[in-house]
Amino acid sequence: MKSIFKFSLILLFAFTACAKKTPELVFSVGGAPNELDFWEEIISDFEKEKGIKVRILRQPTDSDQRRQGILIPMKAKIENPDIFLMDIAWIPQFAASNWLLPLDEYVQRDKYSLKPFWKNILDLSDTYKNNIVALPVYIDAGVLYYRKDLLKKYGFQNPPSTWSEFLKISKKIQKAEREKNSSFFAFVWQGAQYEGLICNFLEFASLDGGGFSFTGKLKINTPANIKAADFMKDLINKWKLSPPNTYTDMKEEQVRMFFQSGNALFERNWPYAWGLHQSDNSEIKGKVAIAALPYFKGGKSVSTLGGWHIGISRFSDSKDEAWAFMKYVVSKKVQKSFCLKLGWNPARKDVYSDAEILKKYPHFKDLKNVFGNASPRPAIPYYTQVSDVLQRHINSIVAGKTDSKEAFNQAEFEIKNIIERYE
Amino acid sequence: MKNFIKKFESYAFVSPLLVFVALFVLIPIIGSIWTSMFRDVTFLKMKFIFLDNYGDLLRDEGFWKSLRFTLLFIAVTVPLELIIGTAFAVVLDLKIPFRGLLRACVLVPWAIPSAISAKIWELVYNYSYGLANYILLSTGLSEAPVNWIGTDIGAFTTVVVADVWKTAPFVALLVLAGLQSVPSDLRLQAKIDRANFVQTFFLITLPLLKPVLLVSLLFRTIDSLRVFDVIYVLTHGGPGGATTSVSLYAYKYFLGGDFGYGSAISVLLFLVAFVMSVFYIKVSKFQDNL
User: Fold this and answer.
1) pLDDT of B112 strictly over 80
2) What does the pLDDT read at residue A14?
3) Interface of chain B against chain A, CB under 8 Å?
4) Of A227, A345, B232, B262, which is most buried by a Cβ count within 10 Å?
5) Is there a single domain that holds both residue B17 and residue B133?
6) Three-class SS of residue B28?
7) A381 in contact with chain B, both atoms CB, cutoff 8 A
8) Across the strands, what pairs with B258?
9) In a domain, B51, yes or no
10) Could you tell me if A310 and A71 are in contact, meaning their C-beta atoms sit under 8 angstroms apart?
11) Residues A269 and A255: beta-carbon distance below 8 Å
């Protein structure tokens, strides 16, 4: 009897603990430990400056789990977290689910200028039904890293601009380097079965008709896409220019470490890798340069747009405070500190012309154009489901398991069912 | 009156358990079935669609593929776990030196959370720094490292090995407990009748272990049916979706905001588990054996 009494007491406490308290601003953010520590610093500066208390809701590094951490409170329509960071690929779903607070009202009220942001990014990713629903915190676009010392050593002046030039250079240098280093590969990129594979694929699918279009007639099974997927497979299987575990293990960090250990000539990665490649314990410090990704003759270089954006929950109980915090996070001062401390690529154009930034990151001059032309992933609310189908089938092609034509056919069939389900 | 109190008393005693089961098992199951009959998608209007989710599911090739994988996974792992687990239990039941220590050692894999044990296996299988490739290369058995999870069979095997390693001790534990209940005089008598160790095991011990083996079989089958963490960590469903289990497939839909479809997948999985359990119990005449 006593234990039942105790149990009900515990239940009672549990329920009262859930009872409403005074509103506080809760910010949900995940990432590497050093990133979270830096967020804490920013929050304490913000608290001192504006007098608004912020509680940080720490989330893991894994992006699926970060998404789950926002999905569940939003589904339950609860007031916390008030504000959160989202991957660019989630915004269509979040916006269509009516979870994001439309910001136009706030922008007009404060006469807040959106000029410093890239217009293409705001239009393509942060706008839903003609209303701004999020702002970029940092942006990503795929770039080609290359070893300038090796290119020079073998008599190449410039990085390749087309894939055929790329193959010529890669074959020659890999063959020569292999004599000293048996684990040398010409090119590392993200090929594991996950979202990064789609980002890479879209960059290979640079020919006309490549990529995935959901406006008008669905196009998946196109010659450009088949060519792209076959090229990815051949890099591993036929020319053996990429390691055999590309399609099983290679995600951003595996690729970055492979290249950073000095065992590769080219690397496809996001701009974050630059700061790490140039750090003191890197084998390739001072030997790396950045270029636009190559393209097939007749096409043009394509970079997939990535990055993280900040949005306010529609269910928030402190929207004004959240908006103040949002403005603070995308202010020039904070954006600059992200860039200097964490090596993130600022979302504001004015930071890229800042003298202090350019001194530390001279390559930023080149990146500005890459971001202006980066192409987004399809902005459909059911993108996760579509991406899952594509990941499975493209990974299967790259692994050499299925014929590309057949795989895209099957993917198109499955995606048609998905569209039918959600439209 | 006295009778009534007596009757009421027994209900009072089971009521805490009933409340517990209702709160944590029954209500979630009914909730899932309920949700599975709705178009419960975060970006669409909620709508009652009765069995439409199931209709979509039946023509979803991705789902069938994951179900085939999961059933094959059960067909391979569960027998292996039962055989290896029973073998360990029999050995640990013998009066051998360091028996206590050995028993503790065997249980270690079971005590490790599966996500962590999967990470440990990743350190074995990893292409660039894994133990398996290190051994292969340093003993000269292979010229180049092997991409263990690069083929369908390879990925399947790695997942099976990791899962058996982790869960065979669970079977061992149950069987070991069962062995305590096999009367020692029966075995002694068999010995007097000049039965050897193998004969004693197969003719005396094993039949008496049947109820325990059935419980393990049931537990392991249901547990394997919802396999998630080992795969999530080791292969993430790859290559090309070859090791995507049903749970992993459902998870992707929950993540994409389609709670109705995700629930329908879970309910089907529940039905498969339910049918399998009923089948086991009927076929084995479980009740008579207890």
Assistant:
1) yes
2) 53
3) 16, 41-44, 56, 59-62, 126-128, 145, 147, 149-152, 155, 235-242, 244, 252-259, 261
4) A345
5) no
6) helix
7) yes
8) B41
9) no
10) no
11) yes
Residue A1 confidence (pLDDT): 42
- Are residues B81 and B28 part of one domain? no
- The answer to whether the CB of A86 falls within 8 A of the CB of A308 is yes
Cross-chain Cβ contact B16/A4 below 8 Å: yes
Q: What is the DSSP string of A319-377?
A: HHHHHHHHHHHTSHHHHHHHHHHH---BSBHHHHT-HHHHHH-TTHHHHHHHHHH-BPP
Considering the domain architecture, whether residues B82 and B144 belong to the same structural domain is answered as yes
CB pairs under 8 A between A and B: 116
> The tokens 């304490």 sit on which residue?
A44
Interface touch A392/B244, C-beta < 8 Å: yes
Which range of residues forms the domain containing residue B168? 62-289
pLDDT in tens, B180-209: 888 888 888 888 888 888 888 888 888 888
pLDDT at A241: 96
Indicate if B69 and B25 belong to the same structural domain.
no
Inter-chain CB proximity A384 and B43 less than 8 Å? no
Matching residue, tokens 């406006």? A215
Judged against a pLDDT cut of 80, whether residue A387 lies above it is answered with yes
In this predicted model, what pLDDT tens digit does every residue of B137-151 receive, in sequence order? 889 888 888 899 989
A417 neighbourhood in chain B, CB within 8 Å:
56, 59-60
| Contact indicator for A322, A25 with CB cutoff of 8 Å | yes
> Looking at chain B, which residue has its C-alpha nearest residue A67?
B255
Q: Do residue B15 and residue B88 come from a single domain?
A: no
Look up the ipTM and state it: 0.85
Q: Average pLDDT, whole number, for chain B?
A: 89
pLDDT of residue A24: 85
pLDDT value of position B93: 87
Name the domain count of chain B.
Answer: 2
Residue A314 · residue A308 · CB < 8 Å: no
Q: What domains lie within chain A, and their CATH numbers?
A: 23-139+306-373 (3.40.190.10), 143-302+382-422 (3.40.190.10)
What is d(CA A243, CA B128) in angstroms, rounded to the nearest whole number? 10
CB B240 to CB A74 under 8 A? no
pLDDT tops 70 at residue A279: yes
